[in-house]
Amino acid sequence: MWGILRQRGIDGGGLSLRRTRSASVSARSYAAGSKEMTVRDALNSAIDEEMSADPKVFVMGEEVGQYQGAYKITKGLLEKYGPERVYDTPITEAGFTGIGVGAAYAGLKPVVEFMTFNFSMQAIDHIINSAAKSNYMSAGQINVPIVFRGPNGAAAGVGAQHSQCYAAWYASVPGLKVLAPYSAEDARGLLKAAIRDPDPVVFLENELLYGESFPISEEALDSSFCLPIGKAKIERQGKDVTIVTFSKMVGFALKAAEKLAEEGISAEVINLRSIRPLDRATINASVRKTSRLVTVEEGFPQHGVCAEICASVVEESFSYLDAPVERIAGADVPMPYAANLERLALPQVEDIVRAAKRACYRSK
Amino acid sequence: MALSRLTSRSNGISRPLSTAFGRFISTDTTPITIETSLPFTAHLCDPPSRSVESSTQELLDFFRTMALMRRMEIAADSLYKAKLIRGFCHLYDGQEAVAIGMEAVITKKDAIITAYRDHCIFLGRGGSLYEVFAELMGRQDGCSKGKGGSMHFYKKDSSFYGGHGIVGAQVPLGCGIAFAQKYVKEEAVTFAMYGDGAANQGQLFEALNISALWDLPSILVCENNHYGMGTAEWRAAKSPSYYKRGDYVPGLKVDGMDAFAVKQACKFAKEHALKNGPIILEMDTYRYHGHSMSDPGSTYRTRDEISGVRQERDPIERIKKLVLSHDLATEKELKDMEKEIRKEVDDAIAKAKDCSMPEPSELFTNVYVKGFGTKSFGADRKEVKAALP
């Protein structure tokens, strides 16, 4: 299957100490007796552990407490930590997000949940103007150690107002960090890193991944486990074409890689994990190896994450490219409700396969 | 902004298939006066009288239409569980009196805008069962051609402006429609409906402030069903007296389970709004279902509470008792009417199931009114593209 590349944890400036791990590639992802964990449980355990470790961490959002979380991500936290650490808010994103940012100004560490990131648009002024820019405007006096988390992108049949992907919007803003986990290990490691991080982090989950189970290592289950922010993960090694993506599309890309392997094309699949900072080094190193690039995202194509990756590769690795860069993205229309139209509006595995073959100058 | 042109004004509910109960009493408009069960509570205004003018026709109409709405929502529940309806589905059963009472005193030039619990409002505005079920199942004959879904029903020709998924957004929008009505001197009003959960949204107060400053004919209707998803009103609002929350804007608290109280309040509100600007109506109502089909509705309220309301305050039972006490129909006749309604709903569902899904080309329609031939793309931009007309 795909190799798991465990990377040495190297900190960017000023982050707290991380455990370093030796780099190793294992041929199989399953060790004998290895555990599995759903993304939901991974997120829940990450928040739980960080709340336990630091009393300044608290959770805020709609239905996060008594209801146990709209998607059960915060299940059990109110019972365990009490109403002084878990706050049910009214349905007033602008208000409670502003309050969360203010609490972060004063040194607390809020984890603010948006029931979906579509609702974050009600609060976007606070995310951008109050959180992202404060450290800069105050020349370092006011940092904002806040995490904004929740499901992002399309679910199933939820229509135009509930299906947008906000990765490109938030990742274009200096001062924000934007993370997008795929697996349970990603979810745990990245959320723990986000909560510990002194800067505002937008943490983009995916509703359809919550129930998915992934193998998880003993190391990842440890309460000190953390993944570095700004480092992508090579989910599958390959030599013919590089497929770069994030979140749910990583699963699709891996399936596409399987199909491509059957036709003799060896695809390298990169799981971004971090949209901002973007791991340009890993992406470019891979493209310099394969000479071909396919980027995939669920969001709208124009000015998207894929557009930035393509620009980066064309700028830094132009002479290595043997084919035009490829973008597979959501359709350039509001999300339709009807099932057949919704399917057409989102990337499918066959779209990724087709683009990869085009990049390899192979006919359909 | 072009407003819809209506060829007829009607005070009642326009129902394409309303001839069914012609057998019983067809056009008897004998006036009846009904007393509301509870008095109105007023804020900064004098409450209207508890005596509501009605007629035998209207009483039967109320029963029939509410029973139709109830049956439609219950059927939608089954369709959702059968996975024929996907995504979100927010049901209105229990709240029918609000939709019905409002329609009884307004015209199709008066506008209504609401949130996502919109199926019955759409029906009240003249939409058909077939359009409802086709839309819910994502078929091309749906009221939004299958592209909107449960939360996005619209009927522009009846001044029904949707159907909105983001909590609270519909209120400033409704005030904007009222702005347009005043701008063109239409002598019409807008009912902007929202729930107790949305009542705390800042944008509501911003829109209310402007409406009051500019004397807009906005009527804010808070359908207080006491729960914002899983959060009870006392946990979300410091002051759950929603009819008073307008501060300088007058308000009325209404028994939202009493269709006649709703009717009287809406009549009062329309007269007020046309002369004096915004007013808030708080409808004390209840939803039997959870927030949506993904919410059981029983983790944050007791089953006793739900069945208690059903027994004591069900809006259809109340009308039924009035029909019987006024000798307008017998128990059996009402049961037969309900059977007919069931069949009507089942027929609409069967027809909707047979309707085809939208054509793939519909993916690219209605992005713009005027697209200038802009290129738009599918997931694979080299495979699927279109020029927007």
From TrEMBL, chain A:
Subcellular location: Mitochondrion matrix
Signal peptide coordinates: none
Pfam family, one: Transketolase_C
UniProtKB keywords: Metal-binding, Mitochondrion, Oxidoreductase, Potassium, Pyruvate, Thiamine pyrophosphate, Transit peptide
One GO term describing the cellular component: mitochondrial matrix
GO molecular function terms listed in the Swiss-Prot or TrEMBL record: metal ion binding; pyruvate dehydrogenase (acetyl-transferring) activity
Gene3D superfamilies named among the record's database cross-references: 3.40.50.920, 3.40.50.970
Enzyme Commission number(s) from the entry: 1.2.4.1
Any one GO BP annotation for this protein: pyruvate decarboxylation to acetyl-CoA
Cofactor: thiamine diphosphate
Domain Transketolase-like pyrimidine-binding: 37-212
Main location: mitochondrion
Catalytic activity, reaction form: N(6)-[(R)-lipoyl]-L-lysyl-[protein] + pyruvate + H(+) = N(6)-[(R)-S(8)-acetyldihydrolipoyl]-L-lysyl-[protein] + CO2
Known partners and oligomeric status: Tetramer of 2 alpha and 2 beta subunits.
Function: The pyruvate dehydrogenase complex catalyzes the overall conversion of pyruvate to acetyl-CoA and CO2.
Protein's UniProt name: Pyruvate dehydrogenase E1 component subunit beta
TrEMBL record, chain B:
Skewed-composition ranges (Basic and acidic residues): 301-311
Residue numbers spanned by region Disordered: 292-311
Catalytic activity: N(6)-[(R)-lipoyl]-L-lysyl-[protein] + pyruvate + H(+) = N(6)-[(R)-S(8)-acetyldihydrolipoyl]-L-lysyl-[protein] + CO2
Keyword vocabulary terms for this entry: Oxidoreductase, Pyruvate, Thiamine pyrophosphate
Residue ranges occupied by any Dehydrogenase E1 component domain in the UniProt entry: 65-360
Oxidoreductase recorded as keyword: yes
InterPro entries from the UniProt entry: DH_E1, PDH_E1_Alpha_Subunit, Pyrv_DH_E1_asu_subgrp-y, THDP-binding
UniProt record, GO biological process: pyruvate decarboxylation to acetyl-CoA
Cofactor(s) annotated in UniProt: thiamine diphosphate
E.C. designation(s): 1.2.4.1
Annotated GO MF terms: pyruvate dehydrogenase (acetyl-transferring) activity
EC class: oxidoreductase
Alphabetized SUPFAM superfamilies for the sequence: Thiamin diphosphate-binding fold (THDP-binding)
Coiled coil: none
Described purpose of this protein according to its UniProt entry: The pyruvate dehydrogenase complex catalyzes the overall conversion of pyruvate to acetyl-CoA and CO(2). It contains multiple copies of three enzymatic components: pyruvate dehydrogenase (E1), dihydrolipoamide acetyltransferase (E2) and lipoamide dehydrogenase (E3).
Subunit structure: Tetramer of 2 alpha and 2 beta subunits.
Protein name: Pyruvate dehydrogenase E1 component subunit alpha
